[in-house]
Amino acid sequence: MIGTNSNPVRIGFYLVPNFSMIAFASAVEPLRMANQLTGTRPYQWQVISSDGQPVACSNGIEIAAQLAAGCEDRFDAVFVCGGVNIHRVEDDIGIQWLRQLDKADMVLGGICTGSYFLAKADLLNGYRCTIHWENMASAREEYPNLVISPELFEMDRNRYSCAGGVAPMDMMLCEIRSKHGAELATRISEQYMCERIRDHNDRQRVPLTQRIGASQPKLAEAVSLMEANIEEPMTLDELSHHVALSRRQLERLFQRYLHCVPTRYYLELRLERARQLLLQTSMPIVDVALACGFISAPHFSKCYRDTFSIPPRDERRRAAGLLGDMQEKSRTN
To answer: pTM of the full predicted structure?
Structure first.
């Protein structure tokens, strides 16, 4: 639980360039509504950036900062708000400031991809954390010693982390519930027309069983095996053996419910993982290929180009160019 029951909780939101606006808003709005519904100010917050200047989020809109990193204002918690291309952010000032806050035993958190930034600052060692599902594979490659869960959010002692989208709202509602009771949290949820307050053990992605129905456990098991064996892909015979079906039966299930053969589905899983690593890390292309089960970089490049209509090297260059254009536009504005 953040802060004490007697004093208003002071929270800082540290904005990283290209942060997710919906994730940031989902974290702030429950606090605002708690203030509105109680008629008091149990929560106070301020926006912080590296230099105190406005920060552009991933949709191009700029948010004004009230403070700069290194400020002497006291907070009960500071949340790093991340977004796309978090691995490209160079911010030594912010990292050093967060390390100073850690020495004061402050609650530090990551929103969307903010956990990546905390990991870069060596502030998640020994803690359970989570990150947006799209960045999970790259974060595990970059920081193999971290315990990264697929849950919506994690609250491990004085480290909070959550996925992007509206997951920060669930995390904040759970925090409000623990501090001020279920009635207030429920009233806030109703104000935002949330069907329910999801708990930390809810998963980020919709399970395959919900998309195809619970009547196909063998298909779900086969897909789970594929997802767990990306670097060393299993053969179709091995998959069939593990799920106790014949090759023909497995192929029919994939054709009926996923509209492709198992080998194609497996290849697309591996290529999607490769695309995440390509765009979210600085791993050499040959290492990306090996991490996703391809025997060579040329074979990987051919498969990638056939699927995404662009070679992996050009994909990475294009992404870097788009980021550079956005940064230049932000500076000129």
So the answer is: 0.75
